[in-house]
Every structure is written in C-alpha cells, then in structure tokens.
Design a protein that fits this description.
The structure is a single chain. It is globular and about 55 Å long. Helix 4 packs antiparallel against helix 5 (84-104) and helix 13 packs antiparallel against helix 16 (282-291). Mean pLDDT is 92; it is low at 1-12. The chain has 341 residues and is mainly alpha-helical. The chain is built from 18 helices and no strands.
Length: 341
C-alpha cells in the first residue's frame, strides 16, 4: 500500500476523494438552477441566454471544485483552464465554496488561504462570493466581516444582495423588499443595505436578460433613493458579464440619465476586476468605452488611483471610505471631456 508525500496511505486519499464527491453532490445545485427559464428571467435571445447561462455554469464549476477538493491550490489548477471570459465567475463560486466549508467544517481557514494565495488576483469577485456563502449559511456560521479588508468587505454585502435577488426574485426585485439581516447581524449597519442594492443591481442585468429596456424598467420600479446603487450594479454587470451590443449600451447610458456616473463607477470596478487577474476581453473594452468614456486599462487605473487609505479616513457608518471611493470614481469619469456621452 503506497504512502503519499504527506505520510498518509492510499485509503486516506481515497476516503478524501469520496467525501469530496459527496460534499459536491449534497451542496451544489443542479446546473438547471442557472437556466433563464428555471429562474423566470427575461430571455432576449440565443446569444444573451448563452452568455448568462454560461456565467452560471462557470460559477457552479468553481463552487463545486472548491467544495470537492477543499484546497485552494487544487481548485486553482482546475479553474485556470477555463475560458478567460468566464474564469472570474468560477473564482467567485470558489470563494463561496470555501466560505461554506469554513462554516460547516471549521478550523482550516480555507477562505483566508484562498484570499491570500491563488484567489488574490480575483479578490473583488472572491469577496462577492463570500456574500453568497453567507446567504446559504445559518447566521452562527457566518464569517466575521470585521476581520475582512475594511474597504472591500462591502463587496460581501453586494454578493449577499445579488444572491437574494437572483434566487428570491419576486420578493427582492419585483416586490422591492430589503433584506436587512446581513446589515444587522454583521454589525455593518445602514450602508450595508446600499452595498446590497449594488448587488441587486448586478442581478437585474440577469433578471432582465441583458435587455436594456427590461433592465432599466426594473430599476425605475424602485424608489428614487435606491436607483444610484442599482445603476452602479447594472454598469458593473454590463461591463464584466457582457451580453449587450454597443447600441444597447448607449441606450442604457441614455436611459440612466442623471445616474450615468453610477454606471461609469460600476464599469470601472468591473474593469479593475478583470485587469487585475488578466481577464480583459472585448466586451470589457466595449463596456468601459461606452459607460466610462475610456478604455479598460484607464478605467481600472482610475479605480486604483482613487482607492482611499482606510487608515487615514475616519469611519462614518453612513458614508464609509468605500462610498468615498465610489463617488470619486464617478466624478472622475464624468466631470471632464472623454467621459461617457
């Protein structure tokens, strides 16, 4: 009987493989859960449907690989071969998977290892994935958001909001309800609801099937105060996930009206989330060209340049440094010639 390099015998390796496969089978939804028809989302046509459903499949691939292997490094080796366009979504799913494992099988700090290691280039998507994990775990198994990056931890609430809108669409999209449990239970307070709305805005791009008329109609159904954050999420999804033509994106910009800055900010976040791990694709450039008035590299550079130093800025629960960052990006991309027009 062979001994592996860690000193365990083949039976232990086989048991780990069996347990991993069992975890995957129990915890991972069937791929049919990502179909537009299953979700009741708008179907614009074959191309947009394939984009959105492949996003969902890629997310589940990352989620499943993380849950099965319980190893950031092994998961990374599996996901690195995925198409550039969809790879980031798989790392988002992987972060959800490690969050679930840390909650259900505590003691190994897999999420921390993922964030510090192979997941670091995908940190923006990974934080969103943590929010997905929280939405699926009982409260007492949630990670402590106070131990996360003080600036990026709001993306956890973004992920939580996306999850609720994607899976409970009638209540949180059509019914305009707000789920304040994450805001209360983490202690992150009122701004967490705004961050969740940014995630709901991303989900509207999926619910509306990338159809600009459908998406903007959904946004406009919400009260005025929520629309800037919703449009920010729409801009991020339109630039990161894609699924719309240049003409459609220009119509989105026109329909957004006074919220063009929010679209630009979302587009810049999407650009940075793709530039950082080297996942820029043509629709990223298209999105930033229309929504940000510049190319993806510059939009990402604006995001990086304006990132605040959280050790200097005081924490205002209603206006944290994260919001200062977002507002600064919106101003920079819309207040001079070359901004979105």
């Amino acid at each position: 009987m062979g001994i592996d390099r860690y000193g365990s015998d083949g039976n232990e390796d086989q048991l780990a493989t069996v347990m991993g496969a069992l975890r995957r089978r129990v915890l991972i939804p069937d791929v049919s859960a990502t179909r537009l028809k299953t979700r009741g989302f708008h179907d614009k046509g074959t191309w947009a449907r394939e984009v959105l459903e492949t996003v969902g499949e890629s997310f589940l691939t990352g989620l499943g690989d993380a849950v099965e292997t319980a190893s950031p490094d092994v998961t990374d080796r599996r996901l690195s071969a995925l198409p550039t366009r969809y790879r980031g979504f798989a790392y988002e799913g992987a972060a959800m998977g490690f969050t679930l494992l840390d909650g259900l099988l505590p003691g190994r700090h897999r999420t921390d290892a993922f964030l510090r290691g192979v997941g670091a280039p995908h940190v923006y998507m990974a934080y969103v994935g943590i929010g997905w994990g929280m939405a699926r775990l009982p409260r007492f198994l949630w990670p402590d958001t106070r131990k996360l990056d003080p600036l990026l931890r709001w993306l956890v609430h973004d992920g939580y909001g996306f999850h609720q809108a994607y899976f409970h669409t009638e209540r949180y999209v059509h019914g305009h309800a707000r789920d304040d449990r994450a805001a209360r239970w983490t202690g992150d307070g009122a701004y967490a609801l705004r961050a969740a709305d940014q995630g709901i805005g991303r989900a509207l791009w999926f619910v509306g099937g990338t159809d600009v008329d459908q998406v903007t109609r959904l946004v406009e159904g919400f009260v005025d105060a929520r629309r800037p954050d919703l449009y920010s999420g729409v801009g991020l999804a339109a630039t990161y996930a894609g699924g719309a033509s240049e003409e459609e994106l220009r119509r989105l910009l026109d329909r957004a009206g006074e919220h063009r800055g929010s679209l630009a900010q979302g587009g810049a976040f999407a650009a940075e989330a793709r530039v950082r791990p080297g996942l820029v694709v043509p629709h990223t450039e298209l999105g930033t060209s229309v929504l940000c008035g510049t190319d993806a590299e510059r939009a990402a550079r604006v995001s990086r340049a304006l990132r605040p130093d959280t050790t200097i800025l005081a924490h205002d629960p209603l206006h944290p440094p994260y919001e200062t960052w977002r507002a600064g990006i919106a101003r920079e991309l819309t207040s001079h010639e070359g901004g979105p027009t």
